[in-house]
Amino acid sequence: MTTATRKPPARKARLEKKALNKEPTMAELADRHALYQESVQNSEFELDFIDETFKELTGRTASSMREDFCGTAISSVEWVERRDSNTAIGVDYDAEVLDWGKKHNVSRLKPDQLARLQLIEDDVRTVETDKVDCIQAYNFSYWFFQERAVMVEYFRRTREALVDDGILFLDVFGGSECYQTQKEKRKLDGFKYIWEQAEFNAITNELKCHIHFHFPDKSKLKKAFSYTWRVWGARELREILQEAGFSETIIYRQEFDEETDEALDEYIATEEAEDYACWLGYIVARR
Ligand SMILES: C[S@@+](CC[C@H](N)C(=O)[O-])C[C@H]1O[C@@H](n2cnc3c(N)ncnc32)[C@H](O)[C@@H]1O
To answer: What is the Å distance from ligand 1's center to 70 Cα?
Structure first.
């Protein structure tokens, strides 16, 4: 260290005292899992989609669900709250996020609902569970799997964990914006959510992304969550699902307002879709 950067002892002591008396910032007080749930997840919408699509395709109501990459298990909790006949299995290999989910989400369940929920700390690639009506793997978490062989094996195992008319629900996104670095900001109640695609490797399709949160007092929770995904295409995923033994796959693509080009919360089964810079969809795979 050069002398120029050294602080005189009295000034250093004053700064240290100031730091000790300082009020914590909003970022320091924030809970990253609570912010994630508020900004990223919409379990009610996702469960409505599962319920409606399952009924339409099988003619019956789903009751058992497995939530892969369950994180805070909010979707599993809402599933057992939905109907007295519903059961849920949440699988995640991170004990920290599962513990948060138990404390903040599972704790609100009544004893009969709690009895219908099982949380498993394990890897979704190897976990053994009872057969279920449906499995959801949402928020592109299966894109952690970068090698085709790993994806085939994951799909093969999910298929084995489904009952005969069972269905796997995946989400997917596409459009030119997947393949580039960019930032997207959204203002929410009391904080800003920032989605950053920080690096994209055009050879491997590897995308490094971060979620940051910014607060009105100008404090920031940088890289609250970071992911490295492979950007997979809808067509190749369908082929891999077929290779893993699934009998049929259906793509439900997000609709856009024809006049404003605004993305809508409406998903339609389609084999053809106009290109948009960024679109969301679901892949529904029938066992
Ligand atoms: C992006 S979060 C998804 C949370 C939630 N499913 C959602 O829809 O927002 C990804 C979660 O997947 C978990 N995860 C990643 N790879 C996993 C694996 N191979 N097995 C189990 N959990 C995994 C992480 O611990 C993390 O909680």
So the answer is: 6
Tell me, using a 6 A CB cutoff, whether residue 52 lines ligand 1: no
Round to whole Å and give the CA distance between 89 and 61. 17
- Ligand 1 centroid vs 265 CA: distance in angstroms? 24
- Residues 258 and 125 reside in one and the same domain: yes
Examine the pLDDT at 194 and tell me if it is beyond 80.
yes
Kindly tell me if the per-residue pLDDT of 1 is higher than 70: no
Is 24 within the bounds of a domain? no
Q: How far is the CA of 101 from the centre of ligand 1 (A)?
A: 13
Average pLDDT, the chain: 94
Q: Which domain holds residue 105?
A: 34-174+233-286
pTM of the model: 0.92
Alpha helices by DSSP H, the chain = 9-21, 26-29, 32-39, 43-58, 74-82, 95-104, 111-114, 148-160, 234-243
What atom in ligand 1 is closest to the CA of residue 70?
6
Based on the domain organization, do 241 and 212 belong to the same domain? no
Whole-number pLDDT of residue 9: 59
Whether 136 maps to a domain, the answer reads yes
| Residue 111: count of CB within 10 angstroms of its CB | 6
Atom in ligand 1 nearest the alpha carbon of residue 74: 5
Q: Are residues 200 and 59 in the same domain?
A: no
Domain boundary among 185, 209, 229: 229
